[in-house]
Amino acid sequence: MLVEEDYLPISAIQHFAFCERQWGLLYVEKLWLNNSLTQEGTLLHERVDDPYFAESRGQVRVVRSVALCSSRLGLYGMADLIEIHRLGNAPLGHAYHIVEYKRGRPKANDCDQVQLCAQAMCLEEMLNLSLGMGHLYYGQTKRRQEVELTAALRVKVVDLCVQMHQLYRQGITPKADLKRGCSNCSMESLCLPKLTKSSKKAEQYMATFLAEFAEL
Q1: Which of 8, 145, 132 is nearest to 68 (CA)?
Q2: What's the whole-model pTM score?
Q3: Would you call 193 helix, strand, or coil by DSSP?
Q4: pLDDT in tens, 45-84
Q5: 178-194: b (≥16 Cβ within 10 Å) or e
Q6: Where would you tag: which of 1, 44, 72, 209 has the fewest CB atoms within 10 A of its CB?
């Protein structure tokens, strides 16, 4: 069982599922660089985040910036928006739908779905309920994407959390895995994927750097 000091942000699992090295630079080495894409994401969330916002739309109650936590997963964070749907006339009959806001458009991988599922699992643990689906809203398409919270997706969330916490405790930043999207990453200049992918090139780079430093 993890103590609260060891909990990681829910957003960390999205970074880990997308790129383990990016995750390591952000959460192990505490490094961060902005680019236009990350700024767009920040602005989108600034428009959505409001912990004091709550309104009712017919049979639906909408709340924003809801605090989440899970001792099982060792995660904490915030849900951008939760819709609470009243089911019929039953006083305790409600269905909860989490909505996570993302800039851009749906990705080819499932890193956003993983983050959404982790949020849902936190809410389930907190309220002792079961969620069947959630939604991702993308700023570029201005549409919601329905996400089924399957058993396979839940297993992946648990597996990724185990790996994350293990690496975090050991202080390990994974090696680079050069991909097509690396050039769009705000962390590219710190990650140096073309260089760090090859340990031989990395050794040559460090030897040159140390030699030049010694001459200063």
Answers
A1: 8
A2: 0.78
A3: helix
A4: 455 666 656 687 788 899 999 999 999 999 999 999 999 9
A5: eeeebeebbbbeebbbe
A6: 1
